[in-house]
């Protein structure tokens, strides 16, 4: 009997520490209080113990989906990292202005202690690992000459970062489907990679925001698939 009582006491203590699960509207309200912006929960599911996981859209930045996890008493989210990477992705697309490309960027770690939506890439780098994956979804009708001309300028004007570029070659319909996927997912999951496996071209490594032509042209058969 004493063992049962002790077990129940431990369970109660865990519930006290972890707090209570919350409704979607409560999650939205907590994010609004934290960032002074409006948010909408796209979907949610049960997490560990009494915590929950929410996939959230920013009304101010509707193309960004991020993850919130925890309870009403203690939660974390990836809004700032998604916001910073989203801004960087738009700059990369502008740098590749003559190429029909959709860009998404994933940091090595999405968690951050930053809470200011105006935080910069430099702020983010100062706090965590300086490593990113740039997903470049190219229109497969792009010419190889355009790629060799524009890709070296992909990271112009961006603080020195390290990482890789994952290149995908696809038609316009598939590019639009990728955009819709990103709007409702905080990350690329297994089903995404299964779907795009045949469209994957290759990976280009870079350091300090530098992509030399030699890194792009040597050993990458995907260039031969372009016009």
Give a brief outline of the structure:
This protein is an alpha+beta fold and 227 residues long. It has helices at residues 2-18, 24-35, 79-95, 121-127, 144-150, 172-184, 190-196, 213-217, 222-225; strands at 39-46, 52-58, 65-70, 75-77, 101-107, 132-139, 163-170, 200-206.
Question: What's the arrangement of secondary structure elements?
Answer:
Layout: H1 2-18, H2 24-35, E1 39-46, E2 52-58, E3 65-70, E4 75-77, H3 79-95, E5 101-107, H4 121-127, E6 132-139, H5 144-150, E7 163-170, H6 172-184, H7 190-196, E8 200-206, H8 213-217, H9 222-225
Parallel strand pairs: 6-7
Antiparallel strand pairs: 1-2, 2-3, 3-4, 5-6, 7-8
Describe this structure in words.
The model is unreliable at 2-19 (pLDDT under 50). The protein has 9 helices and 8 strands. With 227 residues, the protein is of the alpha+beta class. The strands form 2 sheets. The chain has a 4-stranded antiparallel sheet with strand order 1-2-3-4. Strands 5-6-7-8 form a 4-stranded mixed sheet. The protein has helices at residues 2-18, 24-35, 79-95, 121-127, 144-150, 172-184, 190-196, 213-217, 222-225, and strands spanning 39-46, 52-58, 65-70, 75-77, 101-107, 132-139, 163-170, 200-206. It has 2 domains: 17-77; 80-225, Domain of unknown function (DUF5037), C-terminal subdomain (Diaminopimelate Epimerase, Chain A, domain 1, Roll). The chain is globular. The longest helix has 17 residues, at 2-18. The relative contact order is 0.12.
């Amino acid at each position: 009997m004493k063992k049962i009582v002790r077990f129940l006491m431990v369970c109660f203590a865990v519930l006290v520490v972890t707090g209570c699960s919350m409704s979607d509207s409560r999650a939205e309200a907590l994010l609004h209080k934290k960032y002074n912006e409006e948010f909408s929960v796209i979907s949610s599911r049960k997490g560990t113990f009494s915590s929950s996981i929410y996939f959230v859209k920013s009304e101010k930045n509707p193309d960004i989906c991020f993850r919130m996890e925890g309870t009403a008493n203690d939660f974390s989210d990836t809004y700032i990292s998604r916001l910073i990477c989203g801004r960087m992705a738009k700059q990369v697309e502008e740098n590749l202005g003559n190429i029909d490309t959709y860009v998404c960027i994933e940091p090595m770690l999405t968690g951050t202690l930053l809470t200011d939506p105006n935080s910069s890439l430099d702020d983010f780098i100062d706090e965590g690992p300086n490593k990113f994956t740039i997903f470049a979804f190219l229109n497969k009708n792009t010419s190889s000459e355009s790629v060799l001309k524009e890709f070296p300028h992909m990271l112009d004007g961006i603080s020195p970062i390290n990482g890789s570029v994952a290149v995908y070659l696809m038609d316009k319909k598939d590019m639009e489907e990728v955009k819709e996927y990103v709007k409702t997912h905080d990350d690329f999951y297994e089903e995404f990679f299964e779907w795009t496996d045949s469209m994957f071209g290759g990976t280009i490594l870079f350091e300090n925001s530098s992509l030399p032509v030699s890194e792009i042209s040597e050993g990458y058969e995907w260039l031969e698939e372009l016009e």
